[in-house]
Model the fold of this input.
Amino acid sequence: MEKFEVSILGCGCALPTIRHFGASQVVNIHEKLLMVDCAEATQLQLRRNHLKFNALGHIFITHLHGDHFFGVIGMISTMALLGRTNTLYVWGPEGIEQALQPQIDIFCQGLTYKVEIHELNANRHEKIFEDRSLEVYTIPLRHRIPCCGYLFKEKPRLPHILRDMIDAYQIPISQINNIKSGMDYTCPDGTVIPHTRLTTPADPPRSFAYCSDTIYKPDITQYLQDVDLLYHEATFTDDEEKEANRFYHSTASQAAAIARDCHARQLCIGHFSSRYNDESLFLQQAQAIFPNTVLAQENLTIQL
Done:
């Protein structure tokens, strides 16, 4: 099975602490690296996690708060120092070009590569990118400023070929892709071998959703049905629900309710407020509603 994993570089909130870095994750899908959010110190975390700067093709920003965005210009500068030539695609809600382009003009003159900025409608669920193996969709969230999450969906793959059957019927290599695509094979003597005898079903496509920052918003579950891994912010514990509502954030139990109602296979909670020195209560509260919950932590990699 080809790689699909999520590396957590930072899972803290707005105020810096010595326990957590600001929000950032890297999604590796079939060896394509995509970054979600890019706070300060993200570059250091890339180094610690042995992730290559210039292997990143896309940066997806949820919203223009500093703990999700302030690391982007440093990343762009470092990529130039490393001799990048491939285009870097930066995605984010309306206003990201106005926020980022002047910094590029001032601090990154003479870039060795192109930075292509795409502004998104944070109130809309839509497909914004696809290639041969991946689709990326926006998830409309509700925060104090325009904010959207992202859904990464692996495209369905072709069935696995049974090599022993190919050898047994001496099927030429030129016919393998046709068989994977659903065609039967006709032997030289006219015998028809159904493609189902020559293949096994493909592994089911996997998916990952990233939802940070947002007030509890149950209607997003319609976009997250049966997601393999859901990362959902849990800035506050349940006793601080009023505070969560005031700042348009979620609690641990609210994140777990989203995972339960969309039938997620696993939940990872993060974006912890700096007021907490121990996140064990977050885990207890979330697991009471959705048992298959883990706490985000720096340098954690989750394989799907």
About this structure: The radius of gyration is 22 Å. The longest helix spans residues 96-107. The chain has a mean pLDDT of 95.
